[in-house]
């Protein structure tokens, strides 16, 4: 069972719909026991970094997430991906979950249309189990105004938008983060979610 | 690189797709969930559902359409029409929409844009604008499906909504809409040059080259059409193949 963390930030139903469509069992959860009992965890989210972090803290799940992400597949999506990093700078400095080193900052290149909204082509950088079935000319759907700054070794794939934008990050063990919305990225997104489901032992 | 988006729009009334010309002469053209699935197969980058129902019962049926589609079609879905309050936005998002498009209501109550952006994020607030030319390089904003001139300068309105937190603009030209003579290039260029959020071109698409032209000549990041795709004069795939052949980046 995949636990989709429901902490009041974003359209969790889309993630659930996609997993249902793929035949992957999932539940919307907001308590520690369910997260601990799950085979894998998805942290979705849209909105602002500090507000989401505060909501997550209010559920009392922060420590549980940190513990479970060290021993079972964990996927952060969009804002959920940004929360994986050490710090966010959306309106104010705010601690993240610190699962992967790095920070999240506003995309500020001049002449750039913000938000980065639409389909962009994944450029693979490092091996990642979620990209095994993804080819060299596949697009995924983004909508965000802040981006991650992290080490190249943690970037599985990036896209070009006023420079490199980390699209899929992976710590080499259990932690994955997708800046794009796999649940809204057509066949490519479904392949990535199917691969994530396939990580469950 | 970011791809230019091709977006089919489905006008829905009482659970059926309908299509009118110049906001008049509406007729039924099919089941919206099936249409959305077909567009998805063709490679649509997003799908817009526009509710032209006037009744409370119709609204329920409309949201069921969105709900059913969201279980089968995994590309972004936008809901327009009938969004008057923050609760309407919430209801649409809960039904599976990723964005809402607000138009007349936003002109009459601009706070709706700010409240929606603050609560749900700018990314899900698309502001639809119907505008009409009044002089060279000058347009005013209309409401109620293009029937009422609000006397608001288009560019002023664009600045206003951007400040309020709109995440995207869907710009419809009343002059071009239904003519099939191409998108309103001067109007789109004026808006794209005066804002830094994404702009969807709407109204006037009649032939395949119109899509290439709008991407070539304006900063629009997406192009929307309804009847052209409904009546199968062109498929989304044909439009994308054509644009790709001309060097436009499409998915």
UniProtKB/TrEMBL annotation, chain B:
SUPFAM superfamilies named in the record: Ribulose-phoshate binding barrel (SSF51366)
Reaction equation(s) it catalyzes: 5-[(5-phospho-1-deoxy-D-ribulos-1-ylimino)methylamino]-1-(5-phospho-beta-D-ribosyl)imidazole-4-carboxamide + L-glutamine = D-erythro-1-(imidazol-4-yl)glycerol 3-phosphate + 5-amino-1-(5-phospho-beta-D-ribosyl)imidazole-4-carboxamide + L-glutamate + H(+)
Entry's Gene Ontology BP terms: L-histidine biosynthetic process
Compartmental location: Cytoplasm
Keywords: Amino-acid biosynthesis, Cytoplasm, Histidine biosynthesis, Lyase
Pathway: Amino-acid biosynthesis; L-histidine biosynthesis; L-histidine from 5-phospho-alpha-D-ribose 1-diphosphate: step 5/9
Gene Ontology CC: cytoplasm
Family note: Belongs to the HisA/HisF family.
Protein name: Imidazole glycerol phosphate synthase subunit HisF
